[in-house]
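# nightly structure sweep
# worker-07 picked up a monomer target from the shared queue
# config: single-sequence mode, recycle default, output format = structure tokens
# input follows
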Amino acid sequence: MSVNINAMSAADAGDAFVRCCGSPAFGALKAAARPFQSHGAMVAASRRIWHNECAMAEWKLAFEAHPRIGDVSQLREKFATTAQWCEGEQAAALESSNDKVLHELSEWNKRYEEKFGHIFIICASGVPAHDILAALKERYPNSPYAENGLAAGEQQKITEIRLQKLDVAIKAETDDADASSRRVGALGAHLAGSNMAAPPPAPPPARSPITTHVLDTTRGRPAEFIPITLETVQLADGSKWSVTGVTDKDGRVGTLLPPDHVLQPGHYCITFDVDAYLRRTTGTAGFYPRVPIHFTVKPSQVREHYHVPLLLNPFGYGTYRGS
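# output follows
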């Protein structure tokens, strides 16, 4: 049965969104952001709120709303309200696991929690147990700043899957009636032998293929007015270029390249000039006046979107590939 999320009370909508994420602040902010004109608009709002408006304390609350990967007993006892979702999300891991893998997962989960203070978060839908274990081991050496960002990105993937499962019908009932009328009209045209119009082509990309945002982890806020430079280091076609931008009030830069720009395989660097920002917000110079982040685009990934965030504090920084 579909739920019209726009017509629900703020409390009920907030509860529904908390079920998807686990963060009370996220639920309240999502409920306040209604009405949504489409499922895509709801997902976009989810990303903005989660990455820009939820403090790290809320991230931790969301992390705590998950059972450990592979811990079936904890899943059913502690997480009754979302147990069915969690079981579905971990189905591939559970089906592909054996006692040896589950034991190793348990041991690495303990190490991870001791280091980072929260359980290992990964979007496990369709991922076999051995791949989850490999990801856990790969992420374990990360700094806390980098790992918090990675975990938050995985949490957002889980949230988006659960938003889809809510099966929300976010248009008014009149829209449903209009859709029904269109279906009847199309059926009539088909029965009458009319040529039906071909479906419209897919819309062109709406954003730069490389984007970024900066989160000040000391203040728990987006970092605005930070100049950045995106440049090529070594590309397959030998081309050289650089572009610049400045983070907005949400800490984001989303217009570095034209939306239809096709990336070349190779080595890129995005540099954040953070000196003036740190002096402005802390009253003193930070340890790193500039932060260069190098990343590689593989030939098989040239049409993918690359989000390269920066988690910043006066004496350190972290990064990850976001969504």
